[in-house]
Specification:
This protein is an alpha+beta fold. It has 2 domains: 107 residues, Beta Barrel (Butyryl-CoA Dehydrogenase, subunit A, domain 2); 89 residues. 31% of the residues lie in helices and 27% in strands. It contains 4 helices and 10 strands, in the order ββββββββαββααα. Helix 1 packs antiparallel against helix 3 and helix 1 runs parallel beside helix 4. The longest helix has 37 residues. The relative contact order is 0.12. Pfam families: Acyl-CoA_dh_1, Acyl-CoA_dh_M. One of its GO terms (molecular function) is acyl-CoA dehydrogenase activity.
Length: 213
């Protein structure tokens, strides 16, 4: 609840040294321990991993089943014994948040730390990623809009051989196809998000479209 109210900064950890796109191949283990669980493993490329006070950790509760009921999501406070932040990536941009490695060394959590249901972690992970992809599409659209506007302004005011280029010949930079095609497609798929088109709370289809764009 504190995370939903903005009182806590959360992080989401899924990717590992041996699993990225294959989200079901989680090697971080969650073994029964007393009435709770004991988590061991390493996560990579975790946004806000250094700053977060609580991390959503995907761990294998039944490695044989994989994504089909073998992955569980846990809420893990970063001040628990055995939890530590490893290497933080050096990035060219996005310096507003860290991208960190997280190490869990026999971190103990209670049953109340299970997010959702045991074995339903893959669904939790995919839901989070779907929403994130739609958001990323919106951010990318903003970048496209800014880059296109800057390029057109430059083309209109560029002077070459004593004349403004745009006034002497038609260039590909002013072509309606170049200007409107990809940008209009991206804008359409982003603006027609699930909440406005009857997709309900399941943005999976639109997130796939965002990735294709």
């Amino acid at each position: 609840r504190a995370g939903g109210k903005g009182e806590k900064l959360l992080a989401f950890s899924l990717t590992e040294p041996g699993s990225g796109s294959d989200s079901g191949a989680v090697h971080t283990s969650a073994e029964p321990h007393g009435d709770g669980w004991q988590l061991t493993g390493t996560k990579l490329y975790v946004s806000n991993g250094r700053e977060a006070s609580t991390v959503i950790v995907m761990a294998a509760t039944d490695a044989r089943r994989g994504a089909n009921g073998g992955v569980t999501a846990f809420l893990v406070d970063t001040d628990r014994p055995g939890f530590r932040v490893g290497r933080c990536e050096k990035k060219m941009g996005l310096h507003g948040s860290s991208t960190a490695e997280l190490v869990l060394d026999h971190v103990e959590v209670g049953p109340e730390h299970v997010l959702g249901e045991v074995g339903k972690g893959f669904h939790v992970a995919m839901t989070a990623l779907d929403v994130g992809r739609v958001s990323l599409g919106a951010a990318s659209l903003g970048a496209i809009e800014m880059a296109t506007t800057a390029a057109l302004d430059y083309a209109k005011n560029r002077t070459q051989f004593g004349c403004r280029s745009a006034s002497t010949r038609r260039s590909s930079s002013s072509s309606p196809t170049w200007r409107c095609g990809p940008r209009r497609s991206a804008r359409s798929s982003t603006w027609r998000r699930p909440t406005r088109t009857g997709w309900g709370t399941d943005p999976t289809g639109w997130s796939r479209l965002e990735r294709a764009e």
